[in-house]
Design a protein that fits this description.
The protein is mainly alpha-helical. The protein has 15 helices and 3 strands. The protein has one domain.
């Protein structure tokens, strides 16, 4: 059990996990000591940089969701168990599922044509968490059966998800030897299929969002950092105008003037994105060459499945707008459910919506230009809201708080398969 706890702790630290993958790759390539040490450390540090940037972005954007819920008069989330309690109660099971799920993924990559190894370390944890929770509270499994079912589903998901997105991935990232390993796969696939069909496989792509032009005085909006800073400042000012007393309250807790607090939040989001992109560049430079050792020796022909920000450099304007559109679509979807008096709390998790919309928009733009990018953002936001609405009656009592900050599309739609299985089994 001590070894299992160590493995669980190691895999819960994505930077160390990815660093070990790079180390294995360099060793299999028989690289020099200095190249092995340098590449291993830079891979781990690159992911830490990426995660730090993501954390800053999340910290800067999360108050927007709270401001929106306050302005709309939405009730607080009412959860009986809660995410943290489930992690504490089922921590050992989650750790084992992480390990077995990863091993199943490697085995399937070795023996099938689905030559993809899922390396988005922090999502390996959340994949296991979601499928353990689903097996426990939807199928009502315990013990070895719980671990076995959740491990098989996690391993299958981490193998099949990169497989069904890879053709779109390799078109978007110009066949750059990595594919998507992320829980935004459903909006990516739907956006890509619709955009590809509507554009006649790109023949009628139309205007590329990356070539979007602005009047000279607004030409600075082509710079993603400045675009995000300006946009989020406007969003904060609008939300603040609607509920200025709440802004004063939370700004006061930070010891800031409310106007200055909103300005800093907007600028910090852009700074976080800049840090994230620095980590992306470092990971691509070090991990992709290292993975060649694994592909050549252990799993011939395999490609790494990596986090969605690695696709942002292939559509930075699309990414920026797609994220904003997804946030708006998620809020509208939440309002529609509230308008129809839906009995469960549908919350707009702004950070997840931004990342999923940003990712889908990069794909949509590649196939169908500006229209495809807009489509990607809308699809991501709507699917988040609809998925959350469908899953709330089933798992809201257990992880409703999780939906309020991480209503990721795959995480609110894939567990519905467990609901279907439970129906068939009569549970």
């Amino acid at each position: 059990m001590g070894f299992v706890d160590f493995v669980k702790a190691l895999m819960q630290e994505p930077s160390l996990f990815l660093g070990l993958i790079a180390l294995l790759g360099f060793l299999l390539l028989r690289e020099t000591i200095e190249r092995t040490v340098s590449g291993t450390l830079k891979t781990a540090i690159g992911l830490l940089i990426l995660v730090t940037g993501t954390g800053l972005m999340a910290e800067s954007i999360s108050p927007l969701g709270n401001l929106a819920s306050k302005a709309l008069g939405l009730p607080p989330v009412n959860v009986e168990i809660g995410t943290n309690n489930i992690i504490m109660q089922l921590g050992m099971q989650i750790g084992l599922v992480m390990l077995f799920g990863f091993l199943i993924n490697v085995f399937l990559a070795r023996v099938t044509r689905m030559k993809f190894i899922y390396l988005t370390g922090h999502l390996i944890f959340w994949n296991a968490f979601i499928f353990v929770t689903s097996a426990k509270y939807i199928l009502h499994l315990d013990g070895a059966a719980l671990i076995a079912v959740a491990s098989i589903v996690t391993g299958l998901y981490q193998t099949i998800q990169p497989w069904y997105t890879h053709k779109f991935d390799l078109y978007v990232n110009e066949n750059n030897n990595f594919v998507l390993g992320h829980d935004s796969s459903i909006p990516v696939v739907i956006t890509s299929l619709i955009a590809k069909a509507a554009s006649g496989n790109g023949a009628r792509k139309g205007r590329d969002m990356e070539e979007l032009s602005f009047p000279k005085a607004l030409s600075w909006l082509r710079e993603p950092l400045l675009l995000m800073a300006a946009t989020f400042l406007v969003l904060y000012l609008i939300a603040g105008a609607v509920n200025f007393e709440y802004v004063k309250e939370i700004a006061g807790q930070a010891g800031k003037n409310p106007i200055i607090w909103m300005l800093l939040k907007a600028l910090t989001f852009a700074a976080g994105f800049s840090i994230l992109m620095a980590g992306v560049r470092m990971i691509i430079a070090e991990l992709i060459p290292a993975f060649k050792g694994i592909a050549d020796r252990l799993v011939p022909g395999a490609l790494p499945a990596l986090d969605c920000p690695l696709f942002f450099p292939y559509g930075q304007i699309s990414m920026a707008y797609g994220g904003l559109i997804a946030m708006a679509a998620m809020v509208v979807t939440s309002l529609i459910f509230a308008g129809f008096k839906y009995p469960y709390f549908i919350f707009a998790p702004t950070m997840s919506a931004w990342f999923h919309g940003a990712t889908a928009a990069v794909y949509g733009n590649k196939f169908w230009g500006i229209r495809g990018a807009i489509l990607g953002g809308i699809i991501a936001g709507v699917l988040m809201g609809v998925g959350q609405a469908l899953l709330w009656p089933v798992l809201g009592f257990a992880i409703g708080d999780f939906f309020s900050w991480a209503s990721d599309t795959d995480y609110v739609l894939y567990p519905l398969l467990f609901v279907l299985i439970a129906k068939v089994m009569g549970k």
